[in-house]
Design brief:
The protein has one domain. 79% of the residues lie in helices and 0% in strands. It contains 13 helices and no strands. The protein is mainly alpha-helical.
Length: 279
């Protein structure tokens, strides 16, 4: 693992974590394409590469926390006041409650899929196939959403379905933001509402993936021997790109269709599936 690889992966993580194109798939593609270009055999990732992936997610976690800091504070305040006064009617309280419920559901679905997800990291052709599915779902949800005149806010039913989608997105190739936003559209939310909720719902999961999970799994005696310069640079790049991506993506979805991302997923998935089937 070198500095160029970590910078590339930081850019890819920052963009693809929040765009509906599957960050896990693009990290798999970037790593494996880089190895193919360098003539390196595609084998199981080293612990250092796994740790880099965790730190890149930490970078995007910082980005989403900074961008939505006011929303997060209001949601926490609403939860505290709502529980204290036994008044659960505010919009921010409901949003916080849905995020808590959604996080629990996500973990219950994603955790059993962990071994499958780790297996798929070394099967980029299959990941390409899952990305094709993401593209098809985005295109269908956009078509469906255009035929719905009355838009709805996030409710308990839609929050549960969105959480199920986020849980399935533990598999690389299934875009977390793609599946959650598409599920929101299919449940009659507008694109901006669906995207905003998708980003807020991602916070506990990214937090768990980048901070809690490593405390259980990592060998910290080995971590100190890693290439920390490359890891830190990649993490910073991931955070900066992620922040800018959130900012401009929310503006984009307020005005334009997500179909362009659907077509991108289709093309990227087909190319990757074909390339790695022959590699």
């Amino acid at each position: 693992m070198d500095l160029i690889q970590t910078i590339l992966m930081g850019i890819v993580q920052g963009l693809s974590e929040f765009l509906p194109i599957s960050s896990s798939a693009h990290l798999v593609f970037t790593s494996n394409f880089y190895k193919a270009f360098k003539g390196i055999e595609i084998v199981q990732e080293s612990n250092q590469e796994v740790f880099l992936d965790i730190m890149l997610h930490f970078g995007t976690l910082i980005a989403v926390l900074i961008f939505f800091r006011k929303d997060i504070i209001e949601i926490i305040k609403a939860l505290y006041i709502g529980i204290k006064n036994r008044n659960y009617s505010s919009k921010d309280f409901k949003t916080g409650l849905y995020i808590i419920i959604g996080t629990i559901i996500t973990v219950l679905i994603a955790y059993p899929l962990n071994e499958v997800a780790e297996f798929l990291v070394f099967k980029p052709a299959i990941v390409g196939g899952l990305l094709i599915f993401t593209g098809c779902l985005l295109l269908f949800s956009e078509w469906y959403g255009k035929n719905i005149k009355e838009k709805k806010e996030i409710n308990l039913k839609s929050s549960i379905l969105i959480a199920v989608a986020q849980g399935l997105a533990a598999l690389p190739g299934f875009s977390r933001s793609g599946l959650t936003i598409a599920t929101g559209l299919l449940n009659r939310q507008d694109r901006t509402t669906a995207a905003r909720y998708s980003f807020l719902l991602s916070i506990p999961i990214i937090l768990g993936a980048s901070m809690v999970y490593p405390l259980i799994k990592l060998n910290f005696a080995e971590v100190v021997t890693y290439n920390w310069t490359a890891i830190i640079v990649g993490t910073i790049v991931s955070g900066i790109v992620g922040y800018l991506c959130i900012k401009y993506f929310l503006k984009f979805v307020g005005k334009f269709s997500l179909a362009v991302f659907g077509y991108y997923c289709l093309i990227a998935g087909i190319i990757t599936a074909i390339f790695f089937s022959m590699y």
